[in-house]
Write a sequence for this structure.
């Protein structure tokens, strides 16, 4: 039993290190994107949260939306933001009046990993598409 626990702990440690390494690479890609977007004069906009009903709400964060569905963005501050947020009826009313606070998230090296076939894309490619106007 002790061996299994040790093996599980070792595996969890390996996975955590691999995830941390991927996050570091992805953060560097995001920082590079911000520098290149600024250098190219790519206009930023206020990022907006999207709820399940398709409503969009202010965040007060300036940046670039990465996907047409509005579910991810990069702030001018160099942070990655997940913009899909579930809101209840009362929360929607407050969001309309005050906006929604969003916190930076760890960027994924592959957007949509584990989703349906064709739904995943490398972060580097997603950022490159945005730089080219896609």
């Amino acid at each position: 039993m002790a061996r299994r626990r040790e093996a599980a702990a070792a595996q969890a440690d390996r996975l955590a290190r691999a995830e941390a390494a991927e996050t570091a690479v992805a953060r560097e890609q995001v920082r590079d994107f911000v520098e290149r977007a600024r250098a190219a004069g790519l206009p930023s906009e206020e990022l907006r949260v999207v709820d399940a009903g398709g409503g969009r709400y202010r965040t007060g964060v300036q940046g670039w939306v990465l996907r047409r569905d509005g579910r991810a963005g990069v702030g001018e501050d160099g942070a990655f933001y997940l913009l899909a947020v579930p809101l209840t009826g009362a929360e929607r009313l407050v969001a309309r009046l005050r906006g929604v606070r969003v916190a930076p998230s760890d960027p994924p090296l592959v957007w949509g990993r584990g989703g349906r076939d064709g739904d995943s894309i490398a972060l580097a490619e997603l950022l490159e598409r945005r730089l080219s106007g896609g």
Remarks:
- Residues 110 and 123 are 5 Å apart (CA to CA).
- The chain has a mean pLDDT of 90.
